[in-house]
Amino acid sequence: MSLLITAQLLEDFLTCKTKAYLNLAGQRAEPSDYQSQMERARADLRLRVIDRILSEQSPDSVVRGVELTRSELGRGPSFAFEVTLSSDTFDHHFDGLKRVEGSSKLGRFHYIPILFHEDSRVRKVQRQILAVYGALLTRVQGTMPEIGIVWHGNQAICSKIRLGDLRREAEQLLESLAELQRNSAEPMLMLNDHCPACQFRERCRQKAIGEDNLSLLRGIGEKDIRRYARKGIFTVSQLSHTFRPRRKGKRADSVVHKRHAALQAMAIRDKTIYVLGSPKLESNATKVYLDIEATDDDRFVYLIGIIVVQGDSEWRESFWANNPQDERAIFLKLVNKLARLGDYTMFTYGSYELSFLRRMQRDPKLKPQVDQILAASTNILSVIYSHFYFPTYSNGLKDIATCLGCTWSDANASGLQSLVWRARWDVDRQEQWKAKLLQYNLDDCQALKAVTDHILDLTAGDNSTAPAKPASMTGLRVATVREFDERGRVRKWGEVKFVHPDYAFVNRCAYFDYQQQRVYVQTNRMLRKRRHRPWTHRWRKFAVTRREEVSASACEQCGSSDLIAHQGRVAIGRRKPRPRRSFDLVASKSGIKLGVIECRSKLYECRKCGSVFVPETHRRLDRYFHGLRSWAMYQHIAHGLSFGIIREMIETFFGLRLNRNEIVHFKTQMAWYYESTCRQLWDKLMAGHLLHVDETQCRLKGGKTAYVWAFTNLEEVVYMYRPSREGEFLRELLKSFRGVLVTDFYTAYDAIECPQQKCLVHLIRDMNDDLVANPFDDELQAITEPFGALLRPIITCISEHGLRRRHLRRFKRAVADFFHAVSSSSPRSDVACALRDRLLKNQSKLFTFLDFDNVPWNNNNAENAIKRFALYRARAAGTMKDTGLETLLKLLSLCQTCKYKGLNFWRFLCSRKRDIDDFAAKPNSKPPTQLEVCPEEFPDRWRSYRARTMDRNAIGAISKD
Predict the structure, then answer these.
(1) In the sheet where 580-587 sits, what is the strand order?
(2) Domain residues for 638?
(3) Whether the Cβ atoms of residue 293 and residue 301 lie closer than 8 Å to each other
(4) Would residue 666 count as lying in a domain?
(5) What is the pTM for the complete model shown?
(6) Closest alpha carbon to 90 in 209, 3, 170, 154
(7) Count of CB atoms within 10 A of residue 482's CB?
(8) pLDDT tens digits, one per residue of 736-781
(9) What is the structure's pLDDT at 1?
(10) Which long-range contacts (C-beta less than 8 Å, at least 24 apart) are formed by 788-794?
């Protein structure tokens, strides 16, 4: 190919490589009306902007039609337009250049590129074009411009685009263009969103249909096609044989509507409409079908069309706006029409109409009416996307409606063509263009009506017929996609829904528990005798193992020590307090036994103020002491037993009948007791030289999502709850940490100002996944193989000498050579480029452990801590609230810290110590013997709950003197 690379060729290459190849090959085709319209709009924008700049600048400071050479730019004009770059490979025309301050080979100034774009939005293609302009400009002035300027839209808006991060991508684009110019092979055909506006669209579509190309399916992107190609799937027909229905997971947070490309391909192969799941679509007797048309830059909606069906009657109406000021007027007409209909259901195709309604909802005067319209609106496309698979290559209204037999008055009618018609009407105001738009809009409404009615028939009828291959597209049959087991039988998960309520009643009476407790117990004496009756029997009498006498030394009201201790009934009419009993577990070397503590007290009267009181220790005596709470929480935290199982174990082993909620509150009490311990652990983490961090997701009760962060070093572990994964809190939380931070590659950690070590295990696992997915990528091999050869001797040295800097620093030269080789390479494959950029981005954080002592090269400590929480999460997902999760994480921090320190978590709890290091120094010291009271700092809701449960547990039924 001998043609030169031009600006138009660059834009074609970025939108479609096949289009660029055909233009280089010299093939020509008549441009579409939309393409011609955009070229005229761009030329008009260029003239308007240049005229504006000429009016603001002196004539000598603006030049036009110059060559891009150092001598021409060295003259220093403020603006240069229609600049040409000519060489053996390029014949490139720059839209413009602007002079800015900054040193270069030209002097104390340099130039930045200017681009004109007719669209109102600046997209990725325009950013890439500006980057290529900057790369070509760098070859002349020696300085890469930091920014570029885009003039865009009908309003001639000026936007600045940063080019620093796109420099490497621009060089790769230039190299790819040069290779396309040298190579005569046509690139792989890939249909995309640019095809409707391309002059080669019919040629490419016919070729794609002949090849049965996967890009015909509009829901599949280039990355998906390459992924299928690695599996040996190259055509739509091959993809159609890969669909397998899957059962929804039991722990799914919500209904996820995924579009299955394989099922879409199967619908095309079988010429059958497939229905996935159970679609629900309701409608009133009055149906409204809405379609709107807007200008190309979405400045305003100029046409609203509706079809209203009421019973057997049907009428149509269109609302036309000449300019943006008329938009609100036509919308008010629509609102008034809809207000007269009463109850109705309005259908739209896509979210554009709904977005327009929400925009009009911002007007306070229109908000009540728009709220009613939105409540009655249904997006048919969302229903199709979730459940319906038509034998079409896309879910576009025109494709599906054509499949059902609909036609348009104009054979060339399309969304892009409507933009051309509107632009022509704006120029000459001829009625033929307005008539075409009105008819096209009503044709869309009619197509929406046909598709909606068909879907309503499918959702209301029987969709259980088997798939069949009809003779024509108009005779399509419907097949329901069901879930099958390995033997081909239909899976039926969950509760059976019976048609007759009598059947449902009989089915409920057939459950095992129901028959054991209601049926068999009436005829089986043994079952009747052993039938469980909660909270009805009297507890057996417990032998008291310890007795305590509580006395008072001062009045609680006035502080006087002149007290009278009364026994029995006194003149004031009050009896001395009854003995109160508490329960504890006493651990010894031979086992655990139940301890029953009886607390007695006298009634005291103050001679000074006359108040009568019972000592506070007796009043607030805790029902269950620390030993029993420790045993319950040890079973729950360390072994993952549920509260129901712990309740049964306490009753079986110790004869105590506890309410499950009391055990739940054990966790709250223990978390409060060890609050200071968790603070000590966090202070040690912040004062240390090493910190590992990792996070994971957790689902709370009600479907709420939470995140758990694990902070650890080699000994201490602290878990923390956060409602989201946003890492902004880390900067404030870790501002006092001055050690080395070991993390994965989550970008939130990059904002923390301290030395960091990225987990190399994460990196090599990602590399291995890329190698498995791309086994024939030599450029990827050229990066990953030297990286493995670099790591192996380092890990061997660590195994022999440990994490010592004096042994590891000799590898720093090899690391520098590796990164130098990576930075000088220029891979072309996407995977190799992504890996190269990732390595260079984290260059200073991958081998930090070579400069420090006792700094690991992986994040296994934090991952092990997260794994411990994940085991609990697997059993309790969706059952905890945020407060319950916070209390759990405090106790889990203690358990994991004891594990890292090599301590026994159960022994630590029994010691009643709040300092883990103190326990580690004296692990065999016996805890003090004392009465335990419910603290004043504890929430009042727990104290009131405790009083209720104590009454319900019939405390007075326990034996007393």
Answers:
(1) 546-550, 592-601, 580-587
(2) 546-673+932-952
(3) yes
(4) yes
(5) 0.65
(6) 3
(7) 14
(8) 899 999 999 998 898 888 999 999 999 999 999 888 888 888 899 9
(9) 46
(10) 788/764, 790/814, 790/815, 790/818, 791/760, 791/764, 794/850, 794/857
Q: How many CB atoms lie within 10 A of CB 452?
A: 22
- pLDDT score of 86: 81
The predicted structure's pLDDT at residue 464: 42
Query: What whole-number distance in Å separates Cα of residue 229 and Cα of residue 223?
Result: 10
Residue 534 lies in a domain: no
- For residue 39 the two structure tokens come to 């070229």
In a domain, 162, yes or no: yes
**Phi (first) and psi of residue 476, to 5 degrees:** -65, 140
CA distance 113 to 109: 14
Residues of the chain under the 70 pLDDT cut = 1-3, 246-257, 298, 461-495, 521, 525-541, 568-575, 936-961
- If asked whether residues 454 and 566 sit together in one domain, one would say no
Give the pLDDT score at 493.
52
Identify whether 806 is part of a domain. Answer: yes
Residue finishing a domain among 131, 155, 182: 182
Beta strands at 157-162 and 580-587: parallel, antiparallel or unpaired: unpaired
A 10 A CB-CB count for 745 gives 15
Sheet of 478-481, strand order: 388-389, 273-276, 478-481
* Domain boundary residue, one of 790, 812, 844: 844
741 token code pair: 């931070």
pLDDT at 684: 93
Q: Encode 277-311: b = buried (16+ Cβ within 10 Å), e = exposed.
A: beeebebeebbbbbbbbbbbbeebbbbbbbbbbee
pLDDT of residue 298: 67
- Interhelix angle for 778-801 vs 812-824, to 10°? 170
Contact 117, 158 (CB under 8 A): no
